[in-house]
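Progress note, sequence design subtask.
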C-alpha cells in the first residue's frame, strides 16, 4: 500500500468561503503562516456567482450589510468602484397586495379586517402581563406581536423558511433578524405614515458582477488557496489531516467546514461528542434561477411570500441588485422553494412561473428564457431545543483539541456575510503569530 507523503504547517485552514479567506488574510497581515485548503474548484462557498448563457446568478440573495468600520474598509479597499450602494426595496405579498417590509410595521394596504386584527393583537400583547420565559419561536412571536401578525405573516412565513413548525425551534436566532416595532411604528404603518425602512438590512452594498467578486478579491489578497483538496479524516489526537494524496500535521486547525460534516471527519470522537454531532439539524434549500428576456415587472429587490398556496417563501430580483447581471433588456429572479425534496412535483416550475405572473413579477410566461433548479444541502441551521447544548458540547471538545470551528456553518449559527468576515478576523487574532 502506498504511503501518503507527509507535511506540516503551523496553521491549517479548511474551507475557502468568506470565513476561511478572512482568517487567512488577517493571519497573513499579522505575519502568520498557514495553508488554506478548499475541496471545491472555486473559492467563496455559498458566496459565489454562476455564469450561464449571458446571465450571472448568485446562490440566491447575498447582499453585504457592513456595520463594522474595519470590515467596510476591507471590502471597499478590495472592490473599490466595483461596489454599488443600494437602498433596500423589499415587500411582502399577501392577500393579493404588496405591502412594505417588515409586515409587523406596515399593515397599510391590507384588507381592513386583517390590518385591524394585526394591530389590535399587537396592542393586546403589549398590555398582557409577561408570560415568563418563551422557549419556542411561536411563543416568542405571540408574546411580542400578538395573534394577528403571527397568523398572517410571522408563523407561516418562518415555517416555510425553516421547514419545521415554529414551536420546534427556539427564538435564539431571531433577536437581530426579526424587528420588534414600537407602538408608534405599528400605528404609523397602519395608516401609511412609515417613511423609513426598519430592520438590520435597510441598505446594502453589492459588487457589480455578483457576490463572487468578493471572495475572488479576498483570495488574491490572502495568498495561495489549494483548490480541489478534500479532507478525508481528521486525527484530532495526533493533529493530522488526511487527504487522498497527503497527510498534513498541524499545530492549530481552523475549520469552516459545516459542523455536522466536520463531525463525520473526526476519527473516533468521544461518545458524548458523537451524540452531540448527531443532534445537529439543518434545512437545505431548493431554489430556481429564472432568466428573463424582459425586465422584472416590479421595482423591488425581494419579496416575502407567507401564504401556503404559494410553493415559495421568497423571491429576489438579481437584476435589480446590479444591471450587469443580465444582458441588456433582460431580468433575472431567484425563487426560494418551501419544498426541499429533490423529487418534488415535476410541474413545480410551470406552477411557479404562473404564480410569478399573477404577482406581476413576470409579464407573460413567454418572457422566461430558461429556468435552472439548484440545491444547497446547507442553508438554515435549525435552532431546535437540542441546538444550544449540542453546540456547547462540541465547541468545548474542539477547543481542547486545538480546533477552532468558525463561520456560519462552522459555528452552526444564523449569521450574515459580514459576520463570516468578522469570524475569520477573530480566528486569526486568537491564533496570534
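Output:
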Amino acid at each position: 500500500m502506498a504511503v501518503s507523503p507527509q507535511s506540516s504547517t503551523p496553521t491549517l485552514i479548511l474551507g475557502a468561503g468568506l470565513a476561511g479567506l478572512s482568517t487567512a488574510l488577517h493571519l497573513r497581515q499579522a505575519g502568520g503562516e498557514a495553508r488554506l485548503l478548499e475541496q471545491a474548484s472555486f473559492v467563496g462557498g455559498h458566496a459565489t456567482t454562476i455564469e450561464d448563457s449571458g446571465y450571472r446568478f448568485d446562490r440566491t440573495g447575498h447582499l453585504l450589510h457592513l456595520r463594522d468600520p474595519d470590515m467596510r474598509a476591507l471590502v471597499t479597499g478590495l472592490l473599490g468602484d466595483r461596489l454599488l450602494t443600494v437602498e433596500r426595496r423589499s415587500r411582502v405579498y399577501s392577500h393579493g397586495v404588496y405591502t412594505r417590509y417588515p409586515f409587523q410595521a406596515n399593515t397599510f394596504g391590507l384588507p381592513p379586517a386583517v390590518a385591524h386584527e394585526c394591530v389590535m393583537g399587537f396592542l393586546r400583547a403589549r398590555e398582557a402581563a409577561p408570560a415568563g420565559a418563551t422557549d419556542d419561536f411561536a411563543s416568542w412571536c405571540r408574546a411580542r406581536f400578538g395573534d394577528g401578525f403571527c397568523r398572517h405573516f410571522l408563523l407561516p412565513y418562518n415555517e416555510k423558511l425553516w421547514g419545521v413548525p415554529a414551536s420546534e425551534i427556539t427564538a435564539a436566532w431571531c433577536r437581530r433578524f426579526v424587528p420588534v416595532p414600537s407602538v408608534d411604528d405599528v400605528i404609523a404603518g397602519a395608516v401609511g405614515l412609515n417613511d423609513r425602512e426598519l430592520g438590520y438590512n435597510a441598505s446594502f452594498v453589492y459588487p457589480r458582477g455578483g457576490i463572487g467578486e468578493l471572495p475572488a478579491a479576498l483570495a488574491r489578497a490572502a495568498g495561495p488557496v489549494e483548490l480541489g483538496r478534500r479532507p478525508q479524516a481528521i486525527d484530532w489526537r495526533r493533529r493530522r489531516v488526511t487527504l487522498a494524496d497527503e497527510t498534513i500535521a498541524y499545530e492549530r486547525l481552523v475549520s469552516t467546514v459545516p459542523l455536522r460534516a466536520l463531525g463525520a471527519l473526526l476519527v473516533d470522537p468521544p461518545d458524548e461528542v458523537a451524540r452531540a454531532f448527531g443532534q445537529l439539524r439543518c434545512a437545505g434549500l431548493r431554489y430556481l434561477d429564472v432568466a428573463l428576456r424582459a425586465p422584472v415587472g416590479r421595482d423591488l429587490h425581494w419579496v416575502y411570500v407567507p401564504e401556503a398556496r404559494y410553493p415559495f417563501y421568497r423571491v429576489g430580483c438579481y437584476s435589480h441588485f446590479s444591471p450587469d447581471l443580465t444582458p441588456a433588456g433582460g431580468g433575472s429572479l431567484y425563487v426560494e422553494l418551501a419544498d426541499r425534496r429533490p423529487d418534488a412535483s415535476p410541474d413545480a416550475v410551470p406552477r411557479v412561473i404562473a404564480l410569478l405572473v399573477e404577482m406581476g413579477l413576470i409579464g407573460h410566461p413567454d418572457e422566461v428564457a430558461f429556468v435552472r433548479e439548484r440545491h444547497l444541502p446547507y442553508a438554515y441551521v435549525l435552532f431546535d431545543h437540542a441546538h444550544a447544548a449540542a453546540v456547547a458540547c462540541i465547541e468545548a471538545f474542539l477547543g481542547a483539541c486545538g480546533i477552532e470551528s468558525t463561520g456560519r456553518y462552522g459555528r452552526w449559527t444564523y449569521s450574515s456575510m459580514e459576520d463570516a468576515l468578522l469570524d475569520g478576523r477573530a480566528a486569526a487574532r486568537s491564533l496570534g503569530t
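The chain is about 35% helix and 25% strand. Work on this subtask will continue into the next period as scheduled.
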